[in-house]
Amino acid sequence: xxxxxxxxxxxxxxxxxxxxxxxxxxxxxxxxxxxxxxxxxxxxxxxxxxxxxxxxxxxxxxxxxxxxxxxxxxxxxxxxxxxxxxxxxxxxxxxxxxxxxxxxxxxxxxxxxxxxxxxxxxxxxxxxxxxxxxxxxxxxxxxxxxxxxxxxxxxxxxxxxxxxxxxxxxxxxxxxxxxxxxxxxxxxxxxxxxxxxxxxxxxxxxxxxxxxxxxxxxxxxxxxxxxxxxxxxxxxxxxxxxxxxxx
Length: 247
Hints:
Elements: E1 5-8, E2 12-15, E3 18-21, E4 25-28, E5 49-51, E6 71-73, H1 85-105, E7 126-129, E8 135-139, E9 142-146, H2 147-162, H3 195-202, H4 211-223, H5 225-232
Parallel strand pairs: 5-6
Antiparallel strand pairs: 1-4, 2-3, 7-8, 8-9
Helix pairs in contact: 2-4, 3-5, 4-5
């Protein structure tokens, strides 16, 4: 049986005053591609397409790009990122950049273009909805749970969807890098909370927790390794353990 997906037609990339039609686009609705590429000239392990850090699939001829859950990215000295939305989202701007570079280069060249590498983050916030108005999450090797975790996930998801509203789309300026700042846009935050209080907050599961406060703590920990260590020291069950991250 094949994979659940859809072949897309009529796709194109607008660049400067030209429109480049894509030969074919395939939108997979599953993390696995099944046997879709089993008999083709792709490097394929039966589940995902193999690609390098440039998002260019290992194939012959080499003009196929693959990003998101459909691909397994070869990272020097490490392993492919987990199949999580944050990695697909972060790979998107690299995909656009490299498609553009490929098109611009091949207008008058036969050699391979210089492509931008995708460097995935080492860790990410994992959030699950429990179905009862509460959520479960993991970050920095510690579990978080409660109504506030569900509210945090809901706020993150809604803010991501809002990025695609026409008024929030970045302006494309010819000759300038693609603006990806909207992925990291955040409201102003107060100074970091005292590490002991921050640790106590993250361990709470009652309904009185303000998810904004906890979110600020998690962001401050992500941006400051010393602060992260200081907070973890106040969580006895987990503070002395190192979280398993991507090698």
